[in-house]
Target: Fimbrial assembly family protein
Amino acid sequence: MKKRLSIELTENSIKFILGAQGKNGISIEDIHREAISSEQKGNISSSVEKIKEIIESKGWTRYKKVLLCRIDSMEHVMIELPNVPEEEMESIIRRKLENQKLVDDADKIAYGAIGDFSPKMLQGVYTQVMTQEFLEKISLLKLHGIDFEPFAADRGMRKYANKKENSFFIDIQDTHTIAAIYFKDKLSLYRKINVGRRDFVKSISEILNIEKEKADEYLKEHSYVSNIKATELMERGVDIGPQLNMACESTLAKILRKAVQYIDYFQFKHSGEVLNTVYFSGGELKTEDIRAALERELYIGNIYDYNVKSGFLESDLTQEIFSDNNWNLLAGTMQSEEGIYRLKSKLKLPFKINKNPVYIFLAIVFVMFCSIKFGYYKMQELEQTKQIKMISEKNRELSDYIKESDALEKKIKNVKKDTDYLSKRIGKNTIFNNFLYEVSEILPEEIYFEEIKYSGDRVHLEGKAISDDDYAEVYINELLSSLEGITGSVRLLKTVKFQQNNRINDFSIEVKLSGGEKNEKK
Model:
């Protein structure tokens, strides 16, 4: 079985999973976690040295290695691109990032089209910029590839997303929460909320005025404490139930406020769509109480647990890491052999020079012969290239001329088609249009129409007269008088008035249009 090593580097810790890919899935053979001291936090060079040290001590140097980089300063960017050929995508992405001043000439970019298509001609491409300095520092690890958070998360979440519904994933990690929305089976939104498990611990510590270590023990023991659970704790003699409830609910509220904003954004982007299911991951926070809170606040009835166990073979180590959601992303990286960016290592072969004079002379003659031969063929190649370029230029000019001619012919046909259509419509509706123009000229300010229906030579008008001086009916009479004054165009057939009060009157008027020839001349 092929073994590979996945490494996760964050600001606070380094994690390792050694796995073996078999026919039936991935078996986890070893795991390791190393904390990063506050003094070394953010020091990539120091972290690389620590990773090298652990790999050598564990005997893992011979395995393919993929680094999942989760450094806070290296944020991903989601951009929308047209559906272009793969070979052109990188240059287009780089141009867009340069316009936003997010990339320099020496920087490398990793990207993947894992976003949703909206509209259909665009695709969502998640992009990660890597500086030359960063790549030089991690080159000491002799990596096979590099992975980044959105891509690692997508591998696990996508197994739950499907083409028949929209899904919302909420993953409460140690330092932050991942919020991801899938439009059918495509990633539509990926955000990090700066509230995580540590914030639950911090809130408990501050409300109870205790050390964080003790607050952490309370969270492990009682998990998320809802209002109902707080009452149960009180009945069992645990007096701190209400305080735990206050700490848990206030922290969860910060996550849910952001979640509601993301749902609103998704529904604005995809008009008429709703979220069908919430998938939740939160370590020991995964309880019925927190699922009830999510259902109540997000108005989504289907709440399910999720992790990325799919594709992994059952073992004690598998159970250990998937009981802690902080391994979810590294497990996503383990499912890829090279991450999102493959590193091409240069192989250096040692060689020896034979210093025998005869061999040196023969080598010089051979090099001169090759140089002359190469020069001759190069001259021929340049001449052929020049001729091919001339022919290509002429073909391109001819092709451009043909395209312009076709486009012009198409525009002429479209204009003629539109002209014919408008001529028919204008001829048909001239009498009615003239009537509307006449009405707009005589309509009192106190009257407005709620409905205008036109069929054949009949027009039905319904509306209201609103007056500040208790004489609303006067304005209806004024309108009727004005309509009768449109000579040769209108004949009143029916008038109905309904009085709501002195200031508001409803009315319904039916008229017959006539004098078509006279109207056409106006």
In short: The chain has a mean pLDDT of 81. The two ends are 89 Å apart (CA to CA). Residues 356-428 form one domain.
